[in-house]
């Protein structure tokens, strides 16, 4: 079982998700180590989100939640799954749950900030959350992009350009950052 477990993790790391699923599902269905099963369920959920099988990801995550195992990672992943299905209010509630458990969780801050800004639900709060995330991880292109997008949504185009330009310098090939930069500046890349 240990060999199967490690093969599943290795295939996940290599991005060979279908192979990884074969091994990780074996651990989940026949494994007796609760922590290992938990990790494999989380990894399965990650793979399902990455491969756009969000309903399967939710299934794995809700199984973990119903077993009493809660973590910021669990709620962040559930929130991402909700967001990817355009269930923004549900995603925000789940990111709030993450921040209740871990008030310094930059993934939740950034992601919730992005949703609040992008949807126009609460742009001022979005700015505060995205700013905190960037303060914690100033070299994160994703966080810089979210902050720039929040500034744009708040009407502060000059600030938006500054942050989006920094994000683009760090991750010039990232499509979402390119899209935001083009919207805000009108410049072609």
Blueprint of the fold:
Blueprint: H1 2-13, H2 17-30, H3 34-50, H4 54-66, H5 72-84, H6 88-101, H7 106-119, H8 123-136, H9 141-153, H10 157-170, H11 175-185
Helix pairs in contact: 1-2, 1-3, 2-3, 3-4, 3-5, 4-5, 5-6, 5-7, 6-7, 7-8, 7-9, 8-9, 9-10, 9-11, 10-11
Features:
single chain; 79% helix; mainly alpha; 189 residues; elongated
Structure description:
This protein is mainly α and 189 residues long. Helices cover 79% and strands 0% of the residues. α2 runs antiparallel to α3 (34-50) and α3 (34-50) packs antiparallel against α4. The mean pLDDT is 94.
Enumerate how many helices there are, as a single number: 11
Mean pLDDT: 94
Major β-sheet annotation: none
Radius of gyration: 18 Å
**Residues in helix, %:** over 70%
Percentage beta strand? under 5%
DSSP, total strands: 0
Low-confidence stretches: none
Following the backbone from N to C, one meets helices and strands in this order, namely HHHHHHHHHHH
Structural class: mainly alpha
Give the terminus-to-terminus CA distance: 49 Å
Shape: elongated
Structure at a glance:
With 189 residues, the protein is mainly alpha-helical.
């Amino acid at each position: 079982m240990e060999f199967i477990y490690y093969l599943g993790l290795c295939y996940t790391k290599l991005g060979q998700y279908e192979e990884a699923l074969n091994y990780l599902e074996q651990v989940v269905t026949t494994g007796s180590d609760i922590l290992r099963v938990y990790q494999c369920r989380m990894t399965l959920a990650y793979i399902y989100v990455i491969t756009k099988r969000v309903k399967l990801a939710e299934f794995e995550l809700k199984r973990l939640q119903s077993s009493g195992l809660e973590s910021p990672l669990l709620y962040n992943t559930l929130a991402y799954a909700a967001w990817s299905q355009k269930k923004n209010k549900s995603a925000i509630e789940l990111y709030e749950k993450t921040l209740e458990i871990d008030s310094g969780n930059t993934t939740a801050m950034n992601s919730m900030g992005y949703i609040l800004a992008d949807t126009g639900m609460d742009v001022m709060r979005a700015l505060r959350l995205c700013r905190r995330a960037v303060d914690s991880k100033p070299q994160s292109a994703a966080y810089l992009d979210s902050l720039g997008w929040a500034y744009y949504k708040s009407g502060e185009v000059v600030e938006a350009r500054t942050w989006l330009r920094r994000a683009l310098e760090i991750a010039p090939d990232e499509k979402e950052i390119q899209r935001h930069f083009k919207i805000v500046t009108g410049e072609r890349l």
